[in-house]
Specification:
Layout: H1 3-40, H2 43-85, H3 89-139, E1 143-152, E2 160-167, H4 171-184, E3 191-192, E4 201-207, E5 210-215, H5 218-221, H6 230-241, E6 249-254, E7 257-258, E8 261-262, E9 265-266, E10 271-272
Helix pairs in contact: 4-6
């Protein structure tokens, strides 16, 4: 034998021994794990034993029941054959007509049941959406009465409010309506608007219990000309929007970008309702 062949055989034997060693090692680890698990869970071995026994007995019972069913079917077939032999041709025709009629009735019943099931399924979907809409209407009626806050002459440390009836129906619509009322400004002559002139509402989104309010650039550019404290501007918005049930805070955006500061006001976290600016009657 050539040296090359001997070397190849030696390598093959070594490879086989290594694979065999790995296989035995894995087998030992699995057995050890099963032993430790059975020690911690004494019922494990008994459960496995019961499952194997139930599987074996189940197979036997299935085979026995199958043989019994085949035997019953054979006996029934023999009886039917005997009865059929005793009938005349006319009787057989009548039986065939009756069987066809019965089969037709069964088919019609099956179709009716399928149609009832289908209509019931769609009815459930319709009822689900009706219930959801009615629930939303209960939580948020078509309109809400809220307090819209403004500044007042002679009460620099407190806001004054005007009650407004706003369009609602859902959180987002209610928040949009509240901000629009702020931008619209006060009705009474001794109340003063705090939102910088020219500010437009670009959109509102609701995230959990927070209102994301997106305003136009004028909200920043004209804020220094307003002559009103930065906190007034922010908290008239926050205190007005949080009048809506389900809104606990506000996040401010300008042209789609979140702002972290408005003058001296830190907006890096959502702004929540500040009670110190509310009239004494509300505290």
């Amino acid at each position: 034998m050539r040296p090359e062949e001997e070397l190849f055989k030696k390598k093959k034997k070594r490879s086989f021994r290594f694979v065999k060693f790995i296989f035995i090692l894995i087998l030992i680890i699995i057995i050890a794990l099963l032993v430790f698990y059975s020690l911690e869970n004494p019922s494990f071995v008994e459960d496995v034993k019961n499952k194997l026994l139930s599987f074996y007995t189940g197979q036997q019972e299935t085979a026995d029941s199958r043989e019994a069913a085949e035997s019953v079917e054979t006996d029934a077939g023999d009886e039917i054959g005997i009865e059929t032999e005793g009938k005349t041709g006319n009787e057989n025709e009548v039986d065939a007509v009756v069987e066809d009629k019965q089969q037709e009735d069964i088919n019609n019943e099956t179709v009716d049941e399928a149609e009832d099931t289908s209509s019931s399924f769609w009815q459930k979907i319709i009822n689900f959406f009706k219930e959801k809409i009615s629930k939303q209407e209960e939580e948020f009626p078509a309109r809400l009465k809220i307090r819209v806050y403004f500044a007042s002459l002679g009460k620099e440390d407190k806001f004054i409010y005007e009650e407004r009836d706003i369009v609602a129906g859902e959180l987002k619509t209610a928040a949009e309506s509240a901000v629009k009322e702020l931008i619209k400004g006060p009705v009474k002559s001794y109340h003063y608007p705090v939102i910088p002139s020219g500010t437009k509402l670009l959109g509102v989104e609701i995230y959990e219990n927070l209102a994301k309010i997106n305003l136009s650039q004028e909200f920043l550019e004209k804020s220094l000309d307003s002559g009103i404290l930065d906190e007034y501007v922010i908290y008239t918005i926050v205190n007005t929007v949080t009048e809506i049930p389900g809104v606990d805070g506000v996040i401010f955006f300008i042209e789609g970008s979140r702002i972290k500061y408005y003058g001296r006001v830190d907006l890096s976290i959502p702004a929540i309702r500040d009670e110190k600016y509310l009239p004494d009657s509300e505290e």
